[in-house]
Amino acid sequence: MTGPSEPDDSSAERTLESPDPNAASAATADGDDQGSGKKKRGALREGAILVTIAIVLYYVMLTFIARPYLIPSESMEPTLHGCNGCVGDRIMVDKLTYRFSSPEPGDVVVFKGPPNWSVGYKSIRSDNTAVRWVQNALSFIGFVPPDENDLVKRIMATGGQTVQCRADTGLTVDGKPLNQPFLDSNTMMADPAVYPCLGNEFGPVTVPEGRLWVMGDNRTHSADSRTHCSNRPEDAQRGLLCTGDPVAGTIPVENVIGKARFIAWPPSRWGGVSSVNPQS
User: Fold this and answer.
1) What residues contact residue 233 under an 8 Å CB cut-off, 6+ apart?
2) Does residue 192 carry a pLDDT above 80?
């Protein structure tokens, strides 16, 4: 008689080696979860890097190339729209051009007001810390005016030139009448043909080297070089302004932030900012 058959060693090995389907599925699921987690972390890391790069590039642009600026007043109408307490034009200011060239007559520039131009300036920021933080953030991207006395005007004369205005000659530089197509009688509510100085007669003022004489296009509603100049008392008594120290009514070239290039907002106002040289 034959004895009981011996177990087949190869079958046993195959049984031991056969994988557990449930264990395999669990392992696969764990692997998928780990892979998914790594992908999510990788995506977040890439997103953070892209956001950081975008912020750095935007900061570099604002610092060295261009920045948005909100027109807060009506002093440059109709070229630039703006009014106190309402939304005005948002312009892009070119900060690069004047690194390689000098400001010229006719350029519309944004500049920091000198100390004597900032007397009485009050902060436009809220006393509420949270609101002030939001205002500063919006100012960074040009949706709120900066909390500083930044102004926008048109250059009428540069260092070494003599500017003055008389009723019989109008506004002149070095004795030559100026061409000013950017003035609008309806906006100013005054006709330059009838009131050539659009205010008091002034000058002559010889602009010191390295400084600029600037004026608003809305000549009857602009606190510009005429407003801040110094006067000899005897001349002021007879209505003649800007006959004193020529420095007070001018701004240093280094105070210029940049040149107004184009209107970025609102869409209905898209377009370049005119830089007509009034001396040509």
Assistant:
1) none
2) yes
Yes or no: say if 231 and 242 are a contact pair by the CB < 8 Å rule. Answer: yes
**What domains does the chain contain, in order, with CATH numbers?**
61-272 (2.10.109.10)
pLDDT tens per residue across span 208-264: 999 999 999 999 999 999 999 999 999 988 889 999 999 999 999 999 999 999 998
Task: Answer yes or no: is pLDDT of 193 > 50.
Answer: yes
Q: Above pLDDT 70, what percent of the chain?
A: 80
The beta-strand segments (E) located in the chain are: 66-70, 90-94, 108-112, 150-158, 162-166, 170-173, 176-177, 202-206, 211-215, 251-252, 256-265, 271-272
- Burial label for 247, CB within 10 Å (0-12, 13-18, 19+), is middle
- Positions marked catalytic: 75, 153
Contact (CB, 8 A) for 97 and 65: no
- Residue 207 class from Cβ within 10 Å (0-12 exposed, 13-18 middle, 19+ buried)? buried
Q: What are phi and psi of 154, to 5 degrees?
A: -105, 135
CB of 79 within 8 A of CB of 217? yes
**What is the pTM assigned to this prediction?**
0.76
